[in-house]
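Objective 1.3, modelling of assemblies. Example input:
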Amino acid sequence: MDLSIFGYQFMQNAILSTFLGGIACGTIGVFVVLMHMPFIGVCMSHAAFAGALLGLWLGFNPLLGAFALSLLSAAIIGPLADRGELNPETSVGVIFSLMLGLAFLFMGLMPGNKSGALELLWGSILTNTRSDIILLGIVTVVVVGLVFIFYKEIQATIFNRNIALSVGVPATLFLYGILFLTGATITASLRSIGGLLIFSLILNPAAAAYQLTYSMKRMFLLSAGFGVLSGWIGLLFSYLFNIPSGATIVVTSSVIFMIAAIFSPKRKVKGWQAKPLLKEG
Amino acid sequence: MKSTVIDIENAVVSYREDIALRGLSLKVRSEEFVGIIGPNGAGKTTLLTIVNGLGKLLHGRVSVLGHYITPGNGHSLRKQVGYVAQVQNIDPRMPISVREVVMIGRYGLLGLLRRPSRHDWEIVDEVLALVGMSHLTWRPIGHLSGGEQQRVAIARCLAQEPELFLLDEPTASLDWKAQSGILELVKQIHDSRHLTTLFVTHDLSCLPVACGRVVLMKEGLIWGEGSPDELLTDANLSQLYDMPISAVVRLRKQTISVQD
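Predicted structure (tokens):
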């Protein structure tokens, strides 16, 4: 196998992007899985895609549009879900379909060549620029840093928002903070992974980690690790078989999930209960 | 005479078109144990949420531990108020241990940016021992039975070192043995720590012996107040639940004879 390709700048950029994106998406995924909000994430990633297309159409930075629209969708869904005015799944479904409709509307209105739009749909990790990597790096450091600093408040909010509120933790603020970070991560990874595929890289590594541990700290670490592993293995397959990297990354993350689900100790609860949980604290 | 720690004046709370509390007033003195009884939909849970600052008042004033509740001071107040809800539906795969759940009780007190110290963990272990859950310290919380989860919820409140203890139907959906265990524990905590306690239940058999005063609620208002002996008569309860108590007793007897 000729590995000289890994000496090129574009490939090194891709390896660094998948490393950073894997950590950020894997970390965000823990929130998405444990707070039972996968559809909110799907909706936000499609909103980001629509926002990026709006930027392309009107001639401003697509990532700015992506960030604005994903936050707008979170700002609409969050309070609806929080107040219980609507079944959250219904409101998310309505906004999801609106975002998908807007995305294709903007694509249709865009004059000329649509390759830029398709790149945002499927992602193109091999054309990542230094500024893309810097943005991804900043978002990753912020996401990991905030989880580290506010771990106990995040843990309480994830476990049960009402209990967190009742002991004096500002859980609503943390819920919106989590939605904000999800929007930022989706935006920063959009160019590499693509609007249609980004959500799998958020959900699959965390869902795999969820199968394997009863410790939240370990779940964060495993999920970030699986995110990076999905990126790197996907990149390798993309190079070996000359297929789109976004797709190989997503398929790899799904395979990791399946392996984790098959070997999950949580499937054998009774057998597990005989052994104590490893000490930590 | 003990000082007043809860003073509710003419509280009105509404959820869209439904009015949950219709101008309710109540005073609770320090170290009192008050049982709040009434049928479903009487506004019992809403009453607890305005005491811990989570409910939104449409009208009236609520003073708790010497402070009037405003939209801004709920967080600081809740650090001093322990709250145990009904048995929650917890995902059995949730990656959090019993010990960590009890520690959540101290998170509000610790404040942002401070991590639990060894002293905090010692308090957690102490309250877990008090509620008889030391042997399950390292178990994932979702693996516990309903009764065990309620003991952990009580331990979480005690770890909070609260000045007020609110219990909202803590024994609902538990079997008789678990129910009596929880009631005994609540009594023991009140006897030893003298915490001002509000205990909400719709089931009269779940009223702890420690209860010194009962408040009967119906349709968002206080319907009666006094000592359990003078208030919990067949006539009062028949009116409160809109059903003759003798009929309830008869139905229960029929069920038992069918099972025999």
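The interface with chain A takes residues 52, 54, 75-79, 81, 83, 85, 88, 92-97, 99-101, 103-110, 112-113, 115-116, 121, 138-141, 143, 156, 160 of chain B (CB under 8 Å).
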